[in-house]
UniProtKB/TrEMBL annotation:
Organism name: Corynebacterium glutamicum
Name of protein: Crp/Fnr family transcriptional regulator
Assigned protein family: Belongs to the ROK (NagC/XylR) family.
Signal peptide: none
Top-level taxon in the UniProt lineage: Bacteria
InterPro entries xrefs: ArsR-like_HTH, ATPase_NBD, ROK, WH-like_DNA-bd_sf, WH_DNA-bd_sf
Length: 381
């Protein structure tokens, strides 16, 4: 069986020859070895050894039926990802609901489900039992072995996979240890914000060794607020974010997490006499209430200021917007984009993860596949 150690995800770029070849083959259709040599910058013998090891692990296969004759010499046999030999479980924990899914080695969703249970309203042990039951339900009837489980969560995560998250009411919860004991497979635990940034990294081609790596900044505003970016080494969290400025919300000097997370924002709004149980409810109220709309626009403006400060630090070519602040409030999103343009005077592509489901799937997939994509040969049973 795989190593039973549990750990916090690092979301590094693939660095070993096997991981680099795996990444290219996973994202492509059919590739020949010479194309892998060109794409990775590795030598022919190194690529040959890496491909052989991946084939022996059952991760890659040859397609001799697709071989095209190229004259004398050894034919170039195309390579492709083999049918998934294993499954990988991923979990994205939310305050009110959590997402559980099974993925194959290409990252395709095999089965998934939303668990409509509140992590904030249950004690951690009871909640984790619900997660374990959810994973067991999804794996029932599947013949492929489970070789790892990943968890994305709000809050702070130690290298041992211990979580402290104020919005969940968790203080030092060893979720990695519980899942590792239950399933006897490695458990990867990471904060949701770098996990979403990692999902962008995992879906992007590796840059050629001689080309600069474009930087992608992911900015998240939901149950928590934060930013992470990816470069040639992997994913890095930006923190602390810039403090907020004066506004109708009366947030001058407050930490962005306290002022602009969904709960923090709704608390600021309630101080002004407008009460809503969710962001979606406030957006609905704002259709007929100009003051509520002004507060939403204030939040969008402050988020843009915070994002601009983060962008000035890392100079990204792409900014990915993620979380309900952007997906549930289209007018606020427009305010954000306009304010960002005023404060960050550089060419930048804006991209939106449009739904909550896509956000949680991206985070769950990233933690589920992190070990496979960085150490593919260590998962071989």
């Amino acid at each position: 069986m795989p190593n039973q150690a549990h750990f916090s995800a690092s979301f590094a770029r693939p660095s070993t020859p096997a991981a680099k070849c795996m990444h290219h083959i996973r994202l492509g259709q059919q590739l020949i070895r010479n194309e892998l040599v060109e794409a990775t910058g590795l030598s022919q013998p190194t690529v040959t050894r890496a491909v052989t090891a991946l084939m022996q692990a059952g991760l890659v296969r040859e397609r001799p039926d697709l071989t095209l004759s190229s004259g004398p010499g050894r034919p170039n046999i195309p390579l492709e990802l083999a049918p998934s030999p294993w499954i990988h479980a991923g979990v994205a924990i939310g305050t009110k609901s959590s997402y559980v899914a099974l993925f194959d080695t290409k990252g395709r969703t095999l089965r998934d489900a939303m668990l409509e249970i509140s992590a904030a309203d249950l004690d951690p042990d009871t909640f984790i039992e619900h997660l374990i039951a959810g994973v067991n339900r999804l794996t029932t009837g599947l013949d492929l072995p489970l070789v790892g489980i990943g968890v994305a969560t709000s809050g702070k995560v130690t290298n041992a996979g211990v979580v402290t998250a104020s919005n969940l009411g968790w203080d030092g919860v060893d979720i990695a240890g519980r899942l590792n004991y239950q399933f006897s497979v490695p458990a990867t635990v990471a904060s949701a914000i770098p996990a979403i940034a990692a999902s962008e990294l995992q879906a992007s081609p590796l840059p050629h060794p001689e080309q600069p790596t474009p930087i992608t900044l992911t900015f998240y505003a939901d149950d928590s607020v934060g930013a992470a970016y990816s470069n040639d080494l992997g994913v890095h969290v930006i923190g602390p974010l810039a403090t907020t400025r004066g506004s109708g919300l009366d947030t001058l000097g407050m930490a962005a997490e306290d002022a602009l997370s969904t709960q923090g924002f709704l608390s600021r709004v309630s101080d002004q006499g407008i009460f809503a149980n969710s962001l979606g409810e406030l957006v609905t109220i704002a259709k007929d209430n100009e003051t509520a709309r002004e507060f939403l626009n204030d939040r969008a403006t402050l988020l843009a200021h915070t994002a601009a400060e983060a962008a000035e630090t890392v100079k990204p070519s792409t900014l990915v917007l993620s979380g309900s602040a952007f997906s549930e409030d289209p007018q606020g999103r427009s305010v954000f984009a306009s304010q960002l343009k005023k404060e960050y005077d550089a060419d930048i592509e804006l991209r939106l993860i449009p739904t909550h489901r896509e956000n949680v799937r991206a985070a769950a997939r990233a933690v589920a596949l992190d070990r496979l994509l960085n150490e593919p040969l260590t998962l071989v049973p």
